[in-house]
Amino acid sequence: METDRDYARKQFHLAVYTLATHPGSIKERLMEAACYLVMVQPRHLPLALRDDVSRLMTTLTKSPSKTKTAVRGGTVTCESTGSLGATIPYMRNATAVKAAKAICAIEARLKAL
Fold first, then answer.
1. Measured in Å, how far apart are the chain's first and last C-alpha atoms?
2. Global confidence as pTM
3. Torsion of Cα atoms, 36 then 42 then 43 then 46, to 10°
4. How far apart are CA 10 and CA 16, in angstroms?
5. How many helical (H) and strand (E) elements, i.e. helices and strands, does the chain have?
6. Alpha helix (H) residue ranges in 22-92
7. CA-to-CA distance for 102 and 15, rounded, in angstroms?
8. C-alpha closest to that of 60 among 31, 39, 36
């Protein structure tokens, strides 16, 4: 049976793998990697990492969701970016790199536990 800590390790591993292998820009790689992290809850993490993960997620989800109206195939639809989509594409590259480094550091610390 997978423990909470195993789940967190797996999600951070997948995020790091995505950062390393996704062919896109740093923001595109970060966006894909962050999708693995949004379901990680504080209960999945050791106490020593909860603040670091909380700061990381605050950085990645700083802006509120945005809803856009779009026409697709002649039909008008409303699409939500979610807070990741409203934040990551608009952050500075240096901020994206810093967040990517934080993901790698947290994953390394989880592996060591």
1. 18
2. 0.90
3. 100
4. 10
5. 5, 2
6. 26-37, 47-60, 82-87
7. 11
8. 31
Q: What average pLDDT score do residues 1-7 get?
A: 91
Q: How far apart are CA 55 and CA 37, in angstroms?
A: 13
| Angstrom distance (rounded) from CA 28 to CA 48 | 29
Amino acid at 21: T
Tens of pLDDT along 63-110? 999 887 878 788 888 778 899 999 999 999 999 999 999 999 999 999
CA distance 78 to 62: 22
Question: What is the distance between the alpha carbons of residues 58 and 83, in angstroms, rounded to a whole number?
Answer: 10
> Do residues 86 and 68 touch, judged by C-beta distance below 8 A?
no
Alpha-carbon span 104 to 19, nearest angstrom: 9
CA–centroid distance for 75 within its chain: 31
Give the tokens for residue 93: 């590259």
